Amino acid sequence: MARAAAAGHEVILVVATRGEQGEPVPGILKPGEPLWERRIAETHASARHLGVTRVEFLGYEDSGMMGDAANDNPACFWRADVDEAADRLAAILDEVRADVLTVYDAHGGYGHPDHIQVHRVGHLAGSRVPVGSPEAGGVFEATMNRTHIAELLKRQAELLGEGGSAAEAVAAEEAGEPDFGSHEDDITHAIDVQSVITTKRAAMAAHASQIAADSFFLTLPDEAFTAAFGTEWFIRPGAQRPSGSAFIDELLPGFNAGASSTSTTG
What predicted TM-score, i.e. pTM, was given to this entire model? Predict the structure, then answer.
């Protein structure tokens, strides 16, 4: 989002819920302050760091983690009528004439019910309102490169002197976690965001009720943070990247320069 905004694109963030079911960082909320109010403020603050020009909330309640009692709340996003939710998103896509829409992958990155619902709603909305053209743009699925993460963990284990056994354990774990991110062979696009990595860290820090200042994410040395978060990974449904070939480095021809409308749903 920050790269697209810096290149002159209009970036719009659409958020399904207000995060009511989250577990706030201890002591972060003022007495009597509802978590959802803080989450809305933090979302807008983060968006300002990224250069997002507009933030929209679809109006659903947080569903909590998979299996939580909150999943049964009729007002939560997990229980939402997918057609109705897609209509709400499609109205925004139509208004801004979006060229790119990013949603979560089919398992919501790590199995979060609201992320899975974003995947369903986003694809349905994208089928109702043209996003980009048949040749360019369209709906992309944001994911995590499970293979890359496993390699980083292997390197860390080796640096700590834990040897091959730890590396092998990481590899086995990576191979057995199909609901965490995606295998590298299934990913089509890799966007280098190292040029805006400081902005990305500031945008993450703005979510102070969710990410503590002393958290693992925000205390990583700059080099390690860039290694972990300096590339963002996407899948273009229906596309296939030949194994071993280079990833595509932009979501739209001219994505790195020029102006168009980009929407992302979270």
Answer: 0.89
Indicate which CATH number applies to the domain containing 30: 3.40.50.10320
pLDDT, residue 173, reads 53
Count Cα atoms within 13 angstroms, Cβ side, for 213.
2
For 86, the domain range is: 2-144+183-212+232-265
Is residue 171, in this structure, part of any structural domain at all?
no
User: Which three-class secondary structure string do you get for the chain?
Assistant: CHHHHHCCCEEEEEEEECCCCCCCCCCCCCCCCCHHHHHHHHHHHHHHHHCCCEEEEEEEECCCCCCCHHHHCCCEHHHCCHHHHHHHHHHHHHHHCCCEEEEECCCHHHHCHHHHHHHHHHHHHHHHCCCCCCCCCEEEEEECEHHHHHHHHHHHHHHCCCHHHHHHHHHHHHHCCCCCCECHHHCCEEEECHHHHHHHHHHHHCCCCCCCCCCHHHHCCHHHHHHHHCEEEEECCCCCCCCCCCCECCCCCCCCCCCCEEEEEC
Q: Average pLDDT for residues 12-31, to the nearest whole number? A: 96
- Per-residue model confidence (pLDDT) at position 148: 85
Domain count within the chain: 1
Residue 36, token pair as written in the block: 């959802």
Residue 72, token pair as written in the block = 């049964």
What is the pairing mode between strands 138-143 and 100-104? Answer: parallel
Instruction: Report residue 5 as tokens.
Output: 């905004």
pLDDT digit string, tens, across residues 173-183: 544 456 789 99
The phi and psi torsions of 59 (rounded to 5 degrees) equal: 100, 15
